[in-house]
Structures are given as structure tokens and as C-alpha cells.
Amino acid sequence: MRNFILVMTAAALAGCSSSSFSTWRLPSRGGDTTPVSKPIEALPAEKPAEKPAPAPVATPAPTPAAPAPAAATPVVASTPGPIPLTDLSPAKPPAAAPKPAAAPTPEPEMVTAPDPVVNAPPKPAQPGRPVMAYVNGEPVYMDQLNQLLITGYGMSVAQQLVANELVRQEAQRKGLAVTDAEVEAEHQRTMDAMFSTVSEPNQRQRLLEQLLKRNNVSQDQWNLTMRRNTLLAKLADNQVQVTEEETKEEFDRQYERKVKVQHIQTATLADAQKVLKDLADGAEFTALVNKYSIGPTADKAGLLEPFGSKDTGTPPALRQVAMGMKKVGEVSDPIQVGTAFHILKLLAIIEPENIKYENVQARLAADVRKRKAVALQQDILQILVRGGKLQYVDPILKSQADQGR
User: Fold this and answer.
1) CB-based contacts of 155: which residues, under 8 Å, 6+ apart?
2) I need a surface site. Which of 171, 220, 260, 283 has the fewest CB within 10 A?
């Protein structure tokens, strides 16, 4: 894949969403007002029988019937009277008092959002301090935002801007300039190298957007990088020389026996062994690429460009294992390259074509020239960075530069 210089940066702020809280309270616990037993009612007191009225002397008359006794009247505590009958059955033990309920756990005090300030006039801003936003009428200043962004992400962006300016000055010194069409062509060449297995333009653009988002790089930063690389290509073009020996080596490299493999890269041997276990359990290799691979081919289903034993773009350990695989579908054991571990699956064996060197010599020379130009572009940029006089004025960037960040 064509190498290109891209200084990554990140400037993402995590937004915090507020939640509204509602308060609640426990229901009041009233005492039990039901009595344990009914009180015993007092019996009515005996009322003395009334004497019959004396018969009239003058005229005898039948003796009148005695009047019915008066209705019973309950005894009032303040009025003396006969003692009521007492229940002589064995006394029942008093009912056990109910256990007091456990005190409820006090609820933490809930914080409620203050009532919004409606139509509050903004507080006057401090002179000379641009305002980012007003919050309930209070100003939040741009320098507060800038300080956080520069402290967290400023150096990586600043280095990219410095590199762009160094290349622009060198191109201007040599009378070189680029057009928008040339920048777009560089963009397309880079897309071809990065997403060679995807031909649909919209899908390629979506893959690029995902890649930029994952690395916290904006589309504007990408566009600046493409313009810088276009200038670097022009600076390098006049310095590249291709020899006959290099062209013949390229012929051997391109037209030798090659293999096409799928690839999973993991950070640890344990993860690589998990991949092999999942494969043994019937998992699909492509699904495991998406699940485990951390390498640059993860976005391309783990596909590597076909390579042979002389392809210097592939690490020697991978070349040696891949070229020794004989059966399509074969999966390698974990291969350590640096601190990472790799697993290969053989997809195809490409036998060399019967091509004459003379028929492809010009194209091979162009391929060698392009590859050497890419390497030279990186060298030119490093020379410009080392030779440029750089002085940071911003105190935060100056401090970070002094600390070697």
C-alpha cells in the first residue's frame, strides 16, 4: 500500500446529557386504631318497683296493671351504681404489642435542576474575550475552550500545519505549484492503494470517513495532507533515477510464483490462539477478522495484496510461511512479527505468467520509479523538518515542545 505522510490528531469532546430527577416520599405510617377487644358493657341497674296508686275512695275501680320497667341505662363512670358482672372465665393473656416497623432507609436528597432563566439578559462579557456561549446569561469564553483543545490535541495538529508550511515554502522556492485537479488525482491514487478491493466510489468514501473518524482526523485535515503529498511528489520527481538492474529485479518480483492470503493480526498470543479455537469450532475466517484483527487490513476483510518470496513490502516471516503453504484453505499457526501475532489463510496460488521482460520493461520502470518516489517524499519531509527553524509562541505548545511531546 502506498505510504503517505499523515499526522494524526484528535479533538473530540464528550458531551454530557442531563437527566431530570423526580423526588418521591414514603407514605405516612399511621398507628393501628383497631382495639384489641370490645369493652364490657355494664348491666342495667335494678329499678325499685313502683307502688300501685291508691284506689279512689269514692268510686271503686279495677286495679290498674303495673307499668312496664324502664329501659336499661348504661352506667356512666361519674355516676355511682351497681358494680357490673365480671367475666369469670380464665383471663386471656394480653395481646402482644406489634413489633415496631423498621425505620425506612432515608432517601438521599435529590438534586433537581434549577428553573430555567427565562429571557434573562446576557451578562456583559469581559472586554477583549470572545464568547463561546451564554449559559443562563453567563458567558463561557473561547479561551477556555482553546486552552483545553490545545492542551489535549494541539501539538499533533500544530505539527501537521508546520509540515504543510515547510513543504509549501520549499515548493515555492523551486517554483513549483499544484492544481486542484492534481490534488484530486493524488487523493484517488491514495484511495486506490488503501481500498484496492473496493471499486464503488461511494463505498470507498464511506470507508475513508470511518477510518478518519476512528483516528479523530477531520476531512479538512485529510485534504491538507493530500495537497502536501502532491507537492512532495513534484519535489521528488526530478530526483528519482531507475536503473536496469532495478527494473529486472522488479520483473522477478512481479512475475514469480505468488500467493494470495487473508490475514488476522492480534496484539497477544492468547488472542491468536482464540482465533484458532474459534476456527476449529466452525467460525468463518472473515467473521474472525472483524472480531479480532487490529491490523491495517481489518477494514479490507484481512486481504493482503498477492506477494512472492522477493516482495520486500511483506515482512520476511510472513513471506516464508505463506510461500510454504500448499493447500488452498490452509491456516497457519501464529506468526510473531515484532510484538504482534499473525494468522494467515491461503486463498490462492498464482503461478508465474509466461511474459517476456522486453514487453513489460517500461511499465516495470514506472512502477519502480513510483515506489522510490514515495520513499523519497518521506525523506524530503524529514530533511525539511530537521532543517527548519521552528519557534512556538503559544505558551502551551511551547511548553509541550520543550518537554519533547
Assistant:
1) 397, 400, 401, 405
2) 220
Q: Which residues contact 329 (CB under 8 A, 6 or more apart)?
A: 345, 346
CA dist 102 and 26 (Å) reads 13
Q: Is the dihedral of CA 142, 146, 147, 148 positive or negative?
A: positive
Closest Cα partner for 95 from 35, 20, 172? 35
* Residue indicated by cell numbers 528519482: 240
Written as nine digits, the cell of 336 is 510473531
Q: 267-313: per-residue pLDDT in tens?
A: 999 999 999 999 999 999 999 999 999 988 888 899 998 999 888 88
DSSP H stretches of helix in 99-238? 142-149, 155-173, 180-194, 201-214, 219-237
Nearest to 154 by CA among 346, 400, 344: 400
pLDDT digits (tens, 9 = 90+) for 32-51: 444 433 443 444 444 444 54
In this predicted model, what pLDDT tens digit does every residue of 143-176 receive, in sequence order? 899 889 888 888 888 999 999 999 999 999 999 9
Q: How many CB atoms lie within 10 A of CB 263?
A: 24
Domains, the chain, ordered by start? 143-243+357-402 (no CATH), 256-350 (3.10.50.40)
**C-beta separation of 307 from 313 below 8 A:** yes
Q: Among all chains, which residue has been given the C-alpha cell 490545545?
A: 150
How far apart, in whole angstroms, are the C-alpha atoms of residue 119 and residue 146? 29
- 3-state DSSP helix/strand/coil % of the chain, to nearest 5: 40, 10, 50
- Residue 101, Cα to own-chain centre: how many angstroms? 46
Three cell numbers written together for 14: 464528550
Task: Point out which residues pair with 70 in neighbouring strands.
Answer: none
Backbone φ, ψ for residue 141 (5° rounding): -95, 150
For 161, 164, 180, 235, 374, the CA distances from 186, given in Å and listed in that order, are 19, 16, 10, 14, 12
